[in-house]
Design goal:
This protein has 959 residues and is α/β, with parallel strands linked by helices. The chain has six domains: 5-116, Rossmann fold (3-Layer(aba) Sandwich); 158-305, no CATH class; 332-459, no CATH class; 465-654 and 724-741, Alkaline Phosphatase, subunit A (3-Layer(aba) Sandwich), CATH 3.40.720; 751-884, Immunoglobulin-like (Sandwich); 888-958, F-112 protein-like (Arc Repressor Mutant, subunit A). Strands 22, 23, 25, 28, 29, 31 and 33 form a seven-stranded mixed β-sheet that branches. The longest helix is centred in the middle third of the chain and has 33 residues, at 427-459.
């Protein structure tokens, strides 16, 4: 029995199959392995092979008798059954079928086995020549391979074989640079280069034709001719490796003739080449960039001819990723969502070498990916209300099928605000993609609005009580408050689809969560919807005060947050309910919040952030922040002892953009943006009317006139991001999200610490290294595993941090950085935007209040970019005294602090004066060396200029 390398490899493969799968049936159609199996059977009988071997040798009776000691095979004990001459079909006509079906099939063509065994050891030309005419038996193949190896393992060849091809690649990276290296010393003669070339040919298939092709125009970059020749050989080898990966990732043949033979390379050699390229990218990233760009120059006829459709999932060359991005942008504009999704998924940051190195291109791909998701959602739900006839069916259908489209639309608008800036490649084309998607969405939303108007016209505008907004308090809040304390969150502009996103974050063990849709009262404005959430319904009807100025509830009118709290409190506890703003809940100390709510039956939380942002033209930019606040408020109230929650809204909204049509109606003072109140039931084309009486209103007569699409009436008021007041499902469908925990949440006992380091700005984006550590003395096994982080300007609510990109551990999700605890550093790219440029300090903190996280306040000052429409508001309250320190407290050195305070007050300081503050010339020299570091911590620029007595430091104004 042969014991050469080929037979040894076969035996190892068989042992692996037997250990993994038990019974193995070997289908040897060509009967090429019968002598080998006979020898293996003898070894098994002698105890030199660990598992039994039985071979079919013409008699099924003898085979069955031999198999009898090994049972039926159903116990799946290791057993090798050799069936020469049989295939998958013919084996089914034999008694071995009962072993074959529960067992595992094994096949191995002899030429495949020899090719795998010789890969990297014999030149590909010699191997293919042998296989073409001389391959007869396994024993002969072993003799041939042994003879080939015996003639090559001398001197340098033996050294290269012992190193292995991966180590040789590492040495090749060193050798292409200057200086003495291992390969430069060992491969210094033509004979040595021939040995190296032969080794590279055996290992990876490198051939003379490729060397000749790659040698054109290559100088080798060294004065010594032998070193030049070595560099040329190594450069050609790297070009070969990269080209093999490129060719085998293509979905069509390459254009350049010299690349076409690479398609015929054997699978083992292809696998080796691709593995070496991956090793090169991982271990020698900077060198890979230079080498890949150099190889691109040799493929100048190939790469310009490629199309995005030709490329696979791996971008070997920079040009490939560029071409696919161009194709993805074009496909996104054309509405080819499936193709865009496939390209984008293959080019996530962890898969694409080039994207890891380019934040701007990562942002472009992120936007393309989000656009494809949005487009896919639109295509999957072309006409949600098709066939719907009743209000309850329309609401149910919207919640199930159309709300996900609106959610995808909102997320896309949020992401494009964050991701799309002039630094992003294809900025203009991507703006065109945004516009194209908006046009598609506008047509979809117009059709949805028209279909819903038809349903309302046929079955009425006021739904049954279980879907009415006015019944939420009596049907949902009041029953819950009868047994325990309830937090009743009244959220201005909280659209139904937003609640579907919040719902996912609130699910937890021991928590029951339920989301149901209802229809907001008409018109869908705050003064109607918000007041209808209080207990104001009487006999199913509402008594209107003024022109939608509130609703009458007994002896008083409910028209303000205090009125709503009063009405709610009188129905539940006989006194006014506790009223809190959303920001109050988020910023409160847990113990203080617990005391405030101790005697409350219903805690009313009032939030206007969404509506305020939409009307101030910054809606999508702040939606994520408000959703984060809701998660934080929920966690805070749970810690304070609240178990039951009801989240609901006054109305939804429609996002506005350049595709929104403005329609004139009378004078600009007559209509509101989405409705008209008229004395008469006017029949206008493209509009639908409803009487106030049929809506269950008393105290006000007339009719409401609504658009049947998403157009707005021309009112002369511009600058809003969204609009509401109309009858579209986006405006009318509101959430009733109820959450209940079986027991109040206990604050986490694990403490975390945030660490952050400032890095250099990259393409207009600020950069931080961030990580979260379990605080000293904590039990690491009790860690949550992932901690949410945010960035905020200290003491300045007008400045908003926009998290743009992340590399390293963690992910950006819904505007929040989520990083694993005790992991390596994450690289965060962000911008700071406000109504004016300036400087601020920032804090990296835990925005959700679920964990005990110690934030970190950066001493450095960060530049704020001006953004039109940025929110203007009062400074954000901060807890503790540390964040109230002035900029000077960030300068630890007393002398340096005095110098910069003097500059700030007087506008300049001379070197003599600075030495006086610092105490000595030596201290001044140290100050000069550290000056740039100090400058980052002060809120103004300083110019250094020469003067008669040394340097002079001059304040240039605010940064």
């Amino acid at each position: 029995m042969t014991t050469g390398l080929v037979a040894t490899n076969l035996e190892q493969e068989l042992l692996g199959e037997l250990r993994r799968h038990g019974t193995v049936v070997w289908l040897d159609q060509a009967s090429a392995y019968t002598p080998y199996v006979d020898g293996l059977t003898a070894r098994a009988h002698e105890g030199n092979f660990p598992f039994p071997v039985v071979g079919f040798r013409g008699s099924f009776l003898e085979l069955i008798l031999e198999l009898e000691p090994y049972g039926s095979g159903l116990d799946n004990a290791p057993l090798l059954v050799h069936m020469p001459g049989y295939t998958e079909e013919s084996i089914r006509k034999t008694p071995v079928l009962e072993l074959y079906e529960p067992g595992v099939r094994f096949r191995k063509a002899l030429d495949t086995l020899v090719r795998e065994s010789a890969a990297g050891k014999v030149a590909p030309e010699a191997l293919e020549k042998y296989l073409a005419g001389h391959l007869t038996t396994l024993e002969a193949a072993d003799e041939w391979l042994t003879s080939q190896l015996d003639t090559s393992r001398e001197g340098l060849a033996r050294t290269l074989e012992s190193l292995g091809v991966k180590a040789v690649l590492d040495h090749a990276v060193d050798a292409v640079g200057p200086g003495d290296t291992f390969l430069a010393e060992r491969v210094a003669t033509p004979d040595a280069r021939e040995v190296l070339q032969a080794f590279l040919g055996r290992q990876t298939g490198l051939d003379a034709a490729w060397l000749a092709f790659f040698a054109e125009g290559v100088s080798g970059g060294a004065a010594d001719p032998d070193r030049r020749a070595l560099n040329s050989l190594l450069s050609a080898w790297v070009g070969w490796l990269l080209s093999v990966e490129y060719v085998h990732d293509l979905v069509r043949p390459p254009h350049v003739p010299q690349l076409q033979p690479l398609q015929q390379l054997s699978p083992p050699l292809v696998k080796t080449c691709i593995g070496l390229v991956e090793h090169l990218r991982e271990k020698h990233a900077e060198t890979y960039v230079a080498l890949a760009d150099e190889v691109e120059l040799h493929l100048y006829e190939e790469l310009p001819a490629i199309r995005a459709e030709d490329l696979g999932k791996v971008d070997t060359f920079r040009r490939e990723e560029q071409r696919v991005l161009e194709g993805a942008v074009a496909a996104l504009t054309a509405g080819d969502w499936a193709r865009v999704k496939a390209w984008a998924e293959a080019r996530s940051e962890d898969r694409s070498f080039w994207l890891k190195r380019d934040p701007a291109r990562r942002r472009a791909w992120a936007l393309v990916r989000e656009g494809a998701e949005f487009g896919t959602a639109l295509a999957a739900c072309p006409r949600p209300l098709d066939g719907v006839r009743t209000l309850d069916a329309a609401v149910e259908r919207y919640a199930a099928t159309a709300a996900p489209v609106d959610r995808a639309h909102r997320r896309f608008e949020q992401r494009q605000v964050t991701l799309l800036d002039s630094q992003v490649p294809h900025f203009g084309d991507l703006k065109g993609c945004v516009h194209a998607l908006r046009r598609v969405y506008r047509a979809w939303a117009d059709q949805l609005a028209a279909d819903f108007a038809g349903v309302c016209r046929a079955s009425g505008f006021l739904p049954e009580e279980s879907l009415q907004q006015r019944q939420i308090f009596d049907q949902v809040v009041l029953p819950a408050a009868a047994d325990e304390r309830v937090a009743y969150l009244l959220l201005d502009g909280f659209r139904y689809e937003m609640a579907t996103e919040l719902l996912e974050d609130l699910k937890a063990p021991g928590t029951s969560v339920d989301l149901k849709p209802r229809l907001a009262e008409l018109p869908t404005v705050t003064s109607v919807g918000m007041n209808a959430l209080a207990p104001v319904v009487q006999g199913g009807r509402l008594q209107v005060a003024g022109i939608f100025g509130g609703f009458k509830a007994g002896e008083f009118t409910v028209r303000s947050p205090d009125d709503r709290a009063r009405a709610i409190g009188l129905r539940t506890a006989g006194k006014q309910a506790l009223l809190l703003k959303l920001s109050e809940v988020c910023d409160a100390e847990p113990d203080q919040l617990k005391k405030r709510i101790a005697s409350a039956r219903v805690v009313v939380v009032h939030a206007t952030e969404l509506d305020d942002a939409g009307e101030a033209n910054v809606g999508p930019a702040t939606f994520e922040h408000t959703l984060r606040q809701l998660r934080s408020a929920w966690a805070q109230l749970q810690k304070a002892g609240v178990k039951s929650f009801v989240f609901t809204a006054d109305h939804g909204f429609l996002l506005l953009d350049e595709t929104t049509r403005q329609v004139p109606f009378g004078t600009k003072r007559d209509p509101c943006p989405r409705y008209v109140l008229d004395d008469l039931p006017r029949a206008e084309p493209g509009m639908v009317n409803v009487s106030l009486s049929s809506l269950g209103y008393d105290g006000l007569s007339g009719h409401l006139l609504f658009r049947e699409d998403t157009a707005v009436f021309a009112t002369g008021n511009a600058g809003a991001t969204f609009v509401h007041g109309g009858n579209s499902l986006q405006e009318r469908v509101i959430p009733v999200l109820t959450v209940r925990r079986e027991r109040a949440q206990v604050a986490s006992q694990v403490r975390y610490e945030v660490e952050a380091r400032r890095e250099k700005d990259v393409m207009g984006a600020r950069q931080l290294k961030v990580r979260v550590r379990t605080a000293a003395g904590q039990l690491g096994f009790a860690s949550r595993g992932e901690v949410a982080l945010g960035v905020r300007a200290v003491g300045n609510a007008e400045v908003r941090a926009v998290l743009r990109d992340l590399t390293g551990p963690g992910a950006l999700q819904d505007g929040t950085l989520r990083v694993p605890a005790d992991a390596d550093w994450s690289q965060l790219f962000f911008s700071l935007e406000g109504p004016a440029t300036g400087l601020v300090r920032i804090e990296v903190y835990h925005p959700e209040n679920r964990e005990n996280v110690i934030p970190v306040a950066m001493e450095d000052w960060f530049e704020v970019d001006h953004r039109r429409g940025a929110p203007v508001g009062p400074p954000t309250p901060v807890q503790g005294g540390d964040l109230e320190l002035s900029w000077a407290d960030g300068l630890a050195d007393e002398g340096a602090r005095r110098v910069f305070l003097h500059i700030d007050k007087h506008g300049a300081i001379t070197e003599v004066e600075a030495v006086g503050f610092l105490g000595s010339q030596r201290a001044f020299r140290r100050f000069s060396l550290e000056f740039d570091g100090y400058l980052k911590k002060v809120p103004f620029k300083v110019r250094v200029e020469p003067a008669a007595d040394g340097k002079r430091y001059v304040k240039e104004g605010e940064k």
